[in-house]
Amino acid sequence: MHSTPNANPSAAAYAPANANTRGDALRISGLTKTLGGHRALNGVNLRVGAGEVYGLLGPNGAGKTTLMKIISGLLRADGGQVELLGRPFDRSSLRSVGSLVEGPGLWPRLNAEEHLRLHARLRGVPEETGPELLRTVGMEEVSRRRVSAFSLGMRWRLGIAIALLARPRLLVLDEPTNGLDPVGMRDMRELLRRLAGEGVTVFVSSHQLDQVSRICDRVGVIAEGSTRYEGALDGLALDGDLEEGFFALLSRTSAVVR
Protein backbone atom coordinates (compact mmCIF):
# COMPACT_ATOMS: atom_id res chain seq x y z
CA MET A 1 0.00 0.00 0.00
CA HIS A 2 1.50 3.30 -1.09
CA SER A 3 0.48 6.85 -0.46
CA THR A 4 1.96 9.41 -2.80
CA PRO A 5 3.79 12.29 -1.12
CA ASN A 6 2.13 15.68 -1.47
CA ALA A 7 3.03 17.58 -4.60
CA ASN A 8 3.34 20.66 -2.40
CA PRO A 9 6.88 20.92 -1.05
CA SER A 10 5.93 20.04 2.54
CA ALA A 11 9.52 18.91 2.87
CA ALA A 12 10.31 22.61 3.17
CA ALA A 13 9.19 22.45 6.78
CA TYR A 14 12.16 20.18 7.49
CA ALA A 15 14.73 21.94 5.36
CA PRO A 16 17.39 23.84 7.29
CA ALA A 17 16.54 27.40 8.22
CA ASN A 18 18.52 29.98 6.23
CA ALA A 19 20.12 27.24 4.16
CA ASN A 20 23.03 28.40 2.04
CA THR A 21 23.10 26.56 -1.27
CA ARG A 22 26.46 27.98 -2.32
CA GLY A 23 29.82 26.42 -1.59
CA ASP A 24 30.51 22.95 -0.29
CA ALA A 25 28.45 21.13 2.29
CA LEU A 26 30.95 18.30 2.62
CA ARG A 27 34.65 17.93 1.82
CA ILE A 28 36.52 14.68 2.31
CA SER A 29 40.30 14.73 1.95
CA GLY A 30 42.68 11.77 2.12
CA LEU A 31 40.33 9.72 4.31
CA THR A 32 41.69 6.38 5.55
CA LYS A 33 40.21 3.61 7.67
CA THR A 34 41.37 0.09 8.51
CA LEU A 35 38.87 -2.48 9.74
CA GLY A 36 39.93 -5.94 10.85
CA GLY A 37 43.30 -5.60 9.20
CA HIS A 38 41.69 -4.58 5.89
CA ARG A 39 42.23 -1.11 4.44
CA ALA A 40 38.58 -0.16 3.89
CA LEU A 41 39.39 3.43 2.87
CA ASN A 42 42.69 4.39 1.28
CA GLY A 43 42.83 8.13 0.71
CA VAL A 44 39.27 8.98 -0.39
CA ASN A 45 38.70 12.51 -1.71
CA LEU A 46 35.21 13.85 -2.40
CA ARG A 47 33.51 17.23 -2.60
CA VAL A 48 29.74 17.61 -2.20
CA GLY A 49 28.18 20.95 -3.08
CA ALA A 50 25.56 22.48 -0.81
CA GLY A 51 22.01 21.79 -1.92
CA GLU A 52 22.84 19.08 -4.42
CA VAL A 53 21.94 15.41 -4.63
CA TYR A 54 25.24 13.55 -4.75
CA GLY A 55 25.51 9.87 -5.64
CA LEU A 56 28.19 7.60 -4.19
CA LEU A 57 28.85 4.62 -6.45
CA GLY A 58 31.10 1.60 -6.20
CA PRO A 59 31.11 -2.21 -6.17
CA ASN A 60 30.44 -4.23 -3.03
CA GLY A 61 33.37 -3.92 -0.67
CA ALA A 62 34.48 -0.59 -2.14
CA GLY A 63 34.18 1.24 1.19
CA LYS A 64 30.90 3.10 0.63
CA THR A 65 29.24 2.04 3.87
CA THR A 66 32.42 2.69 5.87
CA LEU A 67 32.59 6.20 4.44
CA MET A 68 28.93 6.87 5.22
CA LYS A 69 29.36 5.62 8.78
CA ILE A 70 32.23 8.05 9.30
CA ILE A 71 30.15 10.96 7.99
CA SER A 72 27.28 9.86 10.24
CA GLY A 73 29.51 9.69 13.33
CA LEU A 74 29.25 5.90 13.66
CA LEU A 75 32.96 5.33 12.97
CA ARG A 76 36.12 7.37 13.34
CA ALA A 77 38.55 7.75 10.48
CA ASP A 78 42.17 6.76 11.02
CA GLY A 79 43.47 9.64 8.94
CA GLY A 80 42.47 12.40 6.57
CA GLN A 81 39.93 15.14 7.09
CA VAL A 82 36.19 15.64 6.89
CA GLU A 83 34.77 19.17 6.71
CA LEU A 84 31.07 19.80 7.14
CA LEU A 85 29.68 23.18 6.10
CA GLY A 86 33.18 24.62 5.99
CA ARG A 87 34.25 23.45 9.46
CA PRO A 88 36.30 20.45 10.62
CA PHE A 89 34.00 17.58 11.52
CA ASP A 90 33.48 16.88 15.22
CA ARG A 91 30.71 15.57 17.46
CA SER A 92 28.86 18.88 17.34
CA SER A 93 28.65 18.52 13.55
CA LEU A 94 26.20 15.65 14.00
CA ARG A 95 23.45 18.13 14.85
CA SER A 96 23.50 19.06 11.17
CA VAL A 97 23.45 15.47 9.86
CA GLY A 98 20.51 13.12 9.42
CA SER A 99 21.44 9.60 8.35
CA LEU A 100 20.10 6.18 7.50
CA VAL A 101 22.90 3.66 7.01
CA GLU A 102 22.48 -0.13 6.71
CA GLY A 103 18.74 0.04 7.23
CA PRO A 104 16.51 1.60 9.88
CA GLY A 105 16.60 0.29 13.44
CA LEU A 106 12.92 -0.01 14.29
CA TRP A 107 10.82 -1.61 17.04
CA PRO A 108 8.36 -4.14 15.54
CA ARG A 109 5.62 -3.56 18.14
CA LEU A 110 5.53 0.23 17.70
CA ASN A 111 3.70 2.01 14.91
CA ALA A 112 5.04 4.82 12.74
CA GLU A 113 3.54 7.62 14.84
CA GLU A 114 5.03 6.16 18.02
CA HIS A 115 8.48 5.96 16.41
CA LEU A 116 8.38 9.62 15.39
CA ARG A 117 7.07 10.68 18.79
CA LEU A 118 9.80 8.76 20.62
CA HIS A 119 12.61 10.07 18.43
CA ALA A 120 11.26 13.61 18.69
CA ARG A 121 11.48 13.41 22.48
CA LEU A 122 15.01 12.02 22.32
CA ARG A 123 16.15 14.85 20.04
CA GLY A 124 14.21 17.64 21.68
CA VAL A 125 12.09 18.21 18.57
CA PRO A 126 8.40 19.24 18.79
CA GLU A 127 6.25 16.11 18.59
CA GLU A 128 3.93 17.88 16.12
CA THR A 129 6.69 17.43 13.57
CA GLY A 130 5.96 13.71 13.26
CA PRO A 131 2.59 13.69 11.44
CA GLU A 132 3.78 16.18 8.81
CA LEU A 133 6.92 14.15 8.21
CA LEU A 134 4.85 11.01 7.71
CA ARG A 135 2.88 12.89 5.05
CA THR A 136 6.13 14.02 3.48
CA VAL A 137 7.34 10.43 3.01
CA GLY A 138 3.88 9.19 2.01
CA MET A 139 3.01 7.15 5.11
CA GLU A 140 0.10 9.01 6.69
CA GLU A 141 -2.36 6.27 5.75
CA VAL A 142 -0.37 3.61 7.60
CA SER A 143 0.82 5.78 10.48
CA ARG A 144 -0.90 3.63 13.13
CA ARG A 145 0.07 0.27 11.70
CA ARG A 146 2.72 -1.68 13.61
CA VAL A 147 6.14 -1.85 12.00
CA SER A 148 5.97 -5.65 12.14
CA ALA A 149 3.41 -5.42 9.31
CA PHE A 150 5.51 -3.06 7.17
CA SER A 151 7.15 -3.98 3.90
CA LEU A 152 10.88 -3.29 3.53
CA GLY A 153 10.15 -0.19 1.51
CA MET A 154 7.80 1.16 4.17
CA ARG A 155 10.47 0.62 6.81
CA TRP A 156 12.89 2.68 4.74
CA ARG A 157 10.37 5.48 4.36
CA LEU A 158 9.89 5.59 8.12
CA GLY A 159 13.66 5.59 8.61
CA ILE A 160 14.00 8.58 6.32
CA ALA A 161 11.26 10.41 8.22
CA ILE A 162 13.20 9.82 11.45
CA ALA A 163 16.40 11.06 9.80
CA LEU A 164 14.63 14.31 8.86
CA LEU A 165 13.37 15.07 12.37
CA ALA A 166 16.10 17.51 13.37
CA ARG A 167 15.99 19.45 10.07
CA PRO A 168 19.46 18.32 8.98
CA ARG A 169 21.54 20.30 6.50
CA LEU A 170 23.14 17.07 5.26
CA LEU A 171 21.04 13.94 4.72
CA VAL A 172 23.07 10.70 4.35
CA LEU A 173 21.14 7.77 2.89
CA ASP A 174 22.40 4.27 2.12
CA GLU A 175 20.32 2.80 -0.77
CA PRO A 176 17.22 4.99 -0.22
CA THR A 177 15.16 3.23 -2.91
CA ASN A 178 15.86 -0.23 -1.47
CA GLY A 179 12.72 -2.37 -1.40
CA LEU A 180 10.53 0.16 -3.20
CA ASP A 181 8.35 -0.67 -6.18
CA PRO A 182 8.49 1.59 -9.28
CA VAL A 183 5.87 3.98 -7.87
CA GLY A 184 7.74 4.15 -4.57
CA MET A 185 11.03 4.81 -6.40
CA ARG A 186 9.45 7.70 -8.28
CA ASP A 187 8.00 9.15 -5.08
CA MET A 188 11.36 8.86 -3.33
CA ARG A 189 13.15 10.60 -6.20
CA GLU A 190 10.65 13.45 -6.04
CA LEU A 191 11.02 13.73 -2.27
CA LEU A 192 14.83 13.90 -2.39
CA ARG A 193 14.77 16.44 -5.21
CA ARG A 194 12.33 18.61 -3.21
CA LEU A 195 14.58 18.44 -0.17
CA ALA A 196 17.58 19.49 -2.26
CA GLY A 197 15.54 22.33 -3.69
CA GLU A 198 14.92 23.58 -0.16
CA GLY A 199 18.63 23.58 0.68
CA VAL A 200 19.17 20.11 2.16
CA THR A 201 22.28 18.45 0.77
CA VAL A 202 21.47 14.81 -0.03
CA PHE A 203 24.31 12.26 -0.08
CA VAL A 204 23.16 8.85 -1.29
CA SER A 205 24.80 5.55 -2.09
CA SER A 206 23.18 3.21 -4.57
CA HIS A 207 23.77 0.19 -6.75
CA GLN A 208 20.87 1.23 -9.00
CA LEU A 209 22.56 3.27 -11.69
CA ASP A 210 19.27 4.05 -13.41
CA GLN A 211 17.97 5.69 -10.24
CA VAL A 212 21.23 7.59 -9.80
CA SER A 213 20.98 8.96 -13.33
CA ARG A 214 17.47 10.24 -12.60
CA ILE A 215 18.18 11.98 -9.31
CA CYS A 216 21.81 12.99 -8.84
CA ASP A 217 23.54 16.23 -9.81
CA ARG A 218 27.02 14.74 -9.52
CA VAL A 219 28.55 11.40 -8.57
CA GLY A 220 31.67 9.97 -7.01
CA VAL A 221 32.96 6.45 -7.63
CA ILE A 222 35.13 4.62 -5.12
CA ALA A 223 36.66 1.19 -5.55
CA GLU A 224 39.11 -0.71 -3.39
CA GLY A 225 38.94 2.15 -0.89
CA SER A 226 40.03 4.90 -3.27
CA THR A 227 38.37 7.60 -5.34
CA ARG A 228 38.22 6.62 -9.03
CA TYR A 229 35.95 9.34 -10.39
CA GLU A 230 34.13 12.46 -9.30
CA GLY A 231 32.11 14.77 -11.48
CA ALA A 232 29.11 15.05 -13.74
CA LEU A 233 27.12 12.00 -14.84
CA ASP A 234 27.94 12.78 -18.47
CA GLY A 235 31.63 12.53 -17.68
CA LEU A 236 31.22 8.99 -16.38
CA ALA A 237 28.85 7.70 -19.06
CA LEU A 238 30.25 5.87 -22.09
CA ASP A 239 28.44 6.81 -25.30
CA GLY A 240 25.58 8.07 -23.15
CA ASP A 241 25.34 4.83 -21.14
CA LEU A 242 26.07 5.30 -17.42
CA GLU A 243 26.29 1.58 -16.69
CA GLU A 244 28.79 0.97 -19.49
CA GLY A 245 30.87 3.90 -18.33
CA PHE A 246 30.82 2.67 -14.74
CA PHE A 247 32.06 -0.81 -15.65
CA ALA A 248 34.63 0.58 -18.06
CA LEU A 249 36.00 2.77 -15.27
CA LEU A 250 36.27 -0.18 -12.90
CA SER A 251 37.99 -2.21 -15.60
CA ARG A 252 40.52 0.54 -16.33
CA THR A 253 41.37 0.95 -12.66
CA SER A 254 41.67 -2.83 -12.10
CA ALA A 255 38.83 -2.81 -9.55
CA VAL A 256 37.24 -6.19 -8.98
CA VAL A 257 33.45 -6.29 -8.76
CA ARG A 258 32.57 -8.78 -6.02
TrEMBL record:
Family classification: Belongs to the ABC transporter superfamily.
InterPro entries to which the protein is assigned, alphabetical: AAA+_ATPase, ABC_transporter-like_ATP-bd, P-loop_NTPase
Stated name of the protein: Lantibiotic ABC transporter ATP-binding protein
Domain of life of the organism encoding this protein: Bacteria
Presence of the UniProt keyword Ribonucleoprotein in the record: no
Keywords assigned by UniProt, alphabetized: ATP-binding, Nucleotide-binding, Transport
ABC transporter domain span: 26-249
Record PANTHER family: ABC TRANSPORTER, ATP-BINDING PROTEIN
Gene3D superfamilies: P-loop containing nucleotide triphosphate hydrolases
The keyword Disulfide bond belongs to this UniProt entry's keyword annotation: no
Molecular function terms, GO-annotated: ATP binding; ATP hydrolysis activity
